[in-house]
Design goal:
Distance between the termini: 15 Å
Strand content: 15-25%
Helix content: 25-40%
Order of helices and strands: EEEEHHHEEHEEHEHEHEHHEHEEHH
Strand order of the largest sheet: 11-8-10-9-13-14-12
Bound molecules: zinc ion
Number of helices: 12
Shape: globular
Structural class: alpha+beta
Low-confidence stretches: none
Mean pLDDT: 95
Radius of gyration: 21 Å
């Protein structure tokens, strides 16, 4: 049985490759009344992320799990993958925004975990085992979500900087200010070129190799303008623009949020989603560049991601001259070089996309043999016959 939500996953976590029964939860999309005092809402697993956002907005609240595929991803899928996205730097992963779960086990038993409790120290928190375990332990059918107030009046800025070193210098600079950082995203000129081609938009800045999108929450205008000028005058950035209206802010966000879609629309990307300790980012990227230029000089690499979380999306584009099979035969070796570097820098082979089928062979690059053995043992406790999402994350 393969549980299935909005089918926006990127690791093959909801693929039924051995003729399993696909259990779609998309029609279980009921959303209950909002508990305004407790700031919670109970929704069924098939509720679409954006529908939840709109539902809770009626009470002036937000569920701050936010990413480009929110228009089709579902709450159940977000929970199964512990979805991340562009707000993790401010709000954390999905895990932080789920209070309670209703889970159906492989035996048919129903578990009601934690309800709407903020505090509940009564032994092992089983709820957390289901969040991020990609449907291999049970099927989430309902969740009690934690809500919060929206950030008033965000300020969105876009900068161009010199290389990844420039990105990290800017990150250090803004974190030392008294602003609340709502997002700190980066992308390279190659990503931008594809967005410009696909979305028919213009580069708002003078050409550069690296771009940073910064969102500041509820910052007063005066100190932001002073900071902006200080950056330009001090040479920490090569160019910059600050959105004056919400339309301009949305336009800047489009440059970042349109990347994934634009890469697929203008070519065939091989995707990776890795994380590094922030302190390791710079040496890691320098070594990565050496590997790519020495071994794969004919590949176009599109780098972008949630750099403030140490999360990079590494996209390798198929060269037009190479056929698909030959390309994907090469990417396996490329992945090995990439993941050897990730391991050497104590990183993760999957920051926010999960393991599913696609990254299964690389799990041991981030998790120890003992950890994987314990995960298998846990699977056997919850699902002794191995009927739920078989072959995902690990083989039994
Ligand atoms: Zn992402």
């Amino acid at each position: 049985v393969v549980p299935s939500g909005g089918r926006t996953g990127l690791a093959g976590g909801a693929v039924a490759k051995d003729h399993e029964v696909v259990l779609s939860l998309v029609r279980m999309r009921r959303m209950h009344a909002i508990d305004v005092l407790g700031r919670t809402v109970v929704v069924e697993a098939g509720a679409v992320t954006q529908a939840v956002h709109e539902h809770v907005a009626e009470a002036g609240l937000v569920w701050p799990v936010d990413f480009a595929s929110k228009g089709s991803s579902t709450v159940g899928g977000n929970i199964a993958t512990n979805a991340g996205g562009v707000r993790v730097i401010r709000y954390g992963h999905t895990r932080q925004w789920v209070l309670g779960l209703v889970v159906v086990l492989a035996t048919g038993e129903v578990l009601r975990l934690n309800g709407a409790l903020e505090k509940n120290n009564t032994g092992i928190d089983l709820r957390q085992a289901f969040i991020g375990s990609e449907g291999v332990l049970g099927v989430v059918t309902e969740a009690t979500l934690r809500l919060t107030r929206p950030a008033p009046k965000p300020t969105v800025l876009l900068f161009s900087v010199d290389g990844l070193a420039g990105v990290l210098q800017l990150f250090r600079n803004v974190r030392d200010k008294d602003f609340t950082l709502g997002a700190f995203e980066f992308f390279t000129d190659r990503c931008l070129a594809r967005v410009m081609r696909h979305r028919r938009v213009a580069d708002p800045l003078r050409g550069a190799s690296h771009y940073v999108l910064v969102e500041l929450e509820s910052a007063a205008e005066e100190p932001v303008v002073a900071w902006f000028e200080e950056l330009l005058e001090g040479g920490l950035v090569t160019d910059g623009t600050m959105a004056q209206t919400s339309d301009q802010a949305r336009a800047l966000w489009t440059l970042r949020e349109g990347i994934s879609e634009s890469l697929s629309a203008t070519g065939l990307p091989h995707k990776n989603d890795i994380a590094l300790p922030i302190a390791e980012l710079e040496p890691f990227c320098a070594e990565l560049e050496t590997v790519f230029t020495e071994r794969y000089p004919h590949f176009e690499i599109c780098l972008f991601g949630h750099i403030g979380d140490g999360n990079l999306h590494v996209n390798v584009m198929k060269p037009d001259a190479l056929d698909k099979d030959a390309f994907f035969a090469t990417t396996h070796d490329l992945d090995r070089h990439l993941f050897e570097l990730v391991r050497a820098h104590d990183g993760s082979v999957s920051a926010e996309h999960g393991i599913g089928l696609l990254k299964k062979g690389w799990l041991e690059y981030t998790r120890s043999a003992t950890e994987i053995e314990l995960m298998r043992a846990l699977k056997k406790v919850f699902d002794p016959n191995g009927i739920l999402n078989p072959g995902k994350i690990f083989d039994l």
